[in-house]
Amino acid sequence: MAKIAIIGEGVKVTGFGLAGAIVLPAEEPDAVRAAWRSLGTDVAIVILTSRAARVLDGEPSSWPLTVVMPP
């Protein structure tokens, strides 16, 4: 079964764990990049905070489907 992952500031992403998402809190740019690289092949959707999305801007991505939370 495909999974959903959430990457970004802890205060914005922690609650998604209650819904069964993989929560990857990342406050600093290096942590955001490390979380992105740690995604398993079973992750189909990644939700990013707007700050995490700015860090990953320019990363090649044909997988997974990525969406950005409103600020």
TrEMBL record:
This is ATP synthase F subunit. SUPFAM superfamilies: AtpF-like. It comes from Actinoallomurus liliacearum. Pfam families: ATP-synt_F (PF01990). InterPro entries: ATPase_V1-cplx_f_g_su (IPR008218), ATPase_V1_fsu_sf (IPR036906). Belongs to the V-ATPase F subunit family. Signal peptide: none annotated. Transmembrane segments: none annotated. Keywords: Ion transport, Transport.
